[in-house]
Amino acid sequence: MRNKFLKELKVLLVEDEERLANLFKSAIGDNFYKFYIANNGKDGLEKFYTLKPDLIITDITMPHLNGLDMAKEIRLRDKTIPIIILSAYSETDKFLDAIDIGVVKYFIKPYDPDELLDYISSIEDKFSDRTVVLEDEFSFNKSTNTLYKNGRYIALSKKENEFIQLLLQENLNGRLTVGDEMIKEKLWQEEEVSDERIRTFIKRLRAKTSKNLIVNVKGHGYQLPMP
């Protein structure tokens, strides 16, 4: 069960010592969907903006921008992303600073990989907003852009995935249905696409998933119903 949850996470490790970073990745990296490395706080901040990880694990003492200052910057943009500190030091002032920033855990090096993985698994509820529950026991992970049924991964083509994302985004924006013209504009852009091709595309997607996953609202378009 632990591996199933961890395999959905994108993790960013911020560590300036290359040898330690590579050892860390070798020890636990395969447990996650993606495992990225940044080599200092400035690089970590840039990768946070571009890669949009689910979890950050960081050292404190680094060049350019230390881990605590990086965490402060990240907190200005994201109040909820879990941040874990790995430090060789146990100074009270650094520990208190980490608490003030909202760091969820402070590990003293050397760490136990299994203890770290168990801790991440124990805070699964902090990642709950990544997953949207859909009809017919489907769910969509917004972080990895992947569809599941009863926890089982459903392989989609690029356009099928983009279509699910479009329906989900419009639903969350308050637009309950998406018409043919918007589908053509967002998925095929400059390419000429007939209404019949849209219907065939959706029919095949329903055959791959479920007829209940995507609903046709006559005269309005398609929607992604949520229980």
Can you put this structure into words, describing what you see?
- With 227 residues, the protein is α/β, with parallel strands linked by helices.
- It folds into two domains: 128 residues, Response regulator (Rossmann fold, 3-Layer(aba) Sandwich), CATH 3.40.50; 90 residues, Winged helix-like DNA-binding domain superfamily/Winged helix DNA-binding domain (Arc Repressor Mutant, subunit A).
- The chain is built from nine helices and eleven strands.
- The strands form three sheets. Strands 2-1-3-4-5 form a five-stranded parallel beta sheet.
- A hairpin with a 4-residue loop joins strand 6 and strand 7.
- Helix 3 packs parallel to helix 4.
- The model has no long low-confidence stretch (mean pLDDT 86).
What does the secondary structure layout of this molecule look like, with pairings?
Blueprint: H1 2-6, E1 10-14, H2 18-28, E2 34-38, H3 41-51, E3 55-58, H4 67-77, E4 83-87, H5 92-101, E5 105-108, H6 113-122, E6 131-133, E7 138-141, E8 146-149, E9 152-154, H7 158-172, H8 180-188, H9 195-208, E10 215-217, E11 221-223
Parallel strand pairs: 1-2, 1-3, 3-4, 4-5
Antiparallel strand pairs: 6-7, 7-8, 8-9, 10-11
Key words describing this protein structure:
alpha/beta; Rossmann fold; 5-stranded parallel beta sheet; 4-stranded antiparallel beta sheet; elongated
Q: Given the helix and strand composition, which structural class is it?
A: alpha/beta
CATH second-level architecture of the largest domain: 3-Layer(aba) Sandwich
In whole angstroms, the N-to-C terminal distance is 24 Å
Gyration radius (Cα, Å) is: 21 Å
Number of strands: 11
CATH class of the largest domain: Alpha Beta
Shape: elongated
The helix count comes to 9
- Taken together, the total number of domains comes to 2
Low-confidence region ranges: none
